[in-house]
Every structure is written in structure tokens, then in C-alpha cells.
Amino acid sequence: MFDVGNSIMCTGGTYALTSGLVHTGEKYEPVNLRSIAAKLLGSVPFVVYMLMLVCAVLQLHLPQPVYTLTGLIGGANTFFIDADDRNDV
User: Fold this and answer.
1) How far apart are CA 36 and CA 61, in angstroms?
2) Which residues, including other chains, have CB under 8 Å from residue 46's CB and lie 6 or more apart?
3) Residue 12 CB-density burial (10 A; 0-12 exposed, 13-18 middle, 19+ buried)
4) For residues 1 and 10, what is the distance between their CA atoms, to the nearest angstrom?
5) How confident is the model at residue 9 (pLDDT cuts 50, 70, 90)?
6) 3-state helix/strand/coil string of 8-76
7) For 35, phi and psi rounded to 5 degrees?
8) Residue 50 C-alpha from the chain's centroid
9) What is the pLDDT of residues 29-82, one digit of tens each?
């Protein structure tokens, strides 16, 4: 559950909450659920995260080429190496 909350805050939640509390010269908007939701829905990473969460809950799968491409990209990033593969590095 920590990962879910942390990812929401990292993908726009922190900006949505603090922008209502800190006046930065933009038009002042009071902090309410509508303004927070509007800022979150304007965050592309948040929308993609929510879309993928819905796909996971509904057990919808992406086409195999997407997994192949992201597997290649993930293989180039040392932070995405599986625990079983770390001994080979």
C-alpha cells in the first residue's frame, strides 16, 4: 500500500496539494477536491498510472510487442534487473 500512495504523490499528488496552499503568483484557487482532481487529471504520469491500474484490475493485457519493447528498455536500466539476474552482472 505504501507503493500505491507513494506513486500517486510522485505522479502529481504533491503538486496538486501544495499548489493550493502556496500562492505562486498564479490565480489563487482554494484547496478543494475539485481543484485537486483537476490538477491530478492534468498530470500525464498520474493518468497513465490510473489507466494501467484499471487494466490490471480488469486483467486486460497489452499486446506482446509492448512487453518486448519495454523489456529491452528495462534491460538497459540497472535498477530494473530482476533479483535472480543480479548474480550474473
Assistant:
1) 30
2) 8, 11, 12, 13, 40
3) buried
4) 14
5) confident
6) HHHHHHHHHHHHHHCCCCCCCCCCCHHHHHHHHHCCHHHHHHHHHHHHHHCCCCCCHHHHHHHHHHHHC
7) -70, -35
8) 7
9) 677 888 888 888 888 888 988 898 899 999 999 899 998 998 888 777 666 555
pTM of the full structure: 0.63
Cβ burial of 17 (10 Å; 0-12, 13-18, 19+) is middle
- C-alpha 70 chain-centroid distance: 16
C-alpha cell at 64: 506482446
Distances (CA, A) of 53 to 6, 15, 33: 14, 21, 21
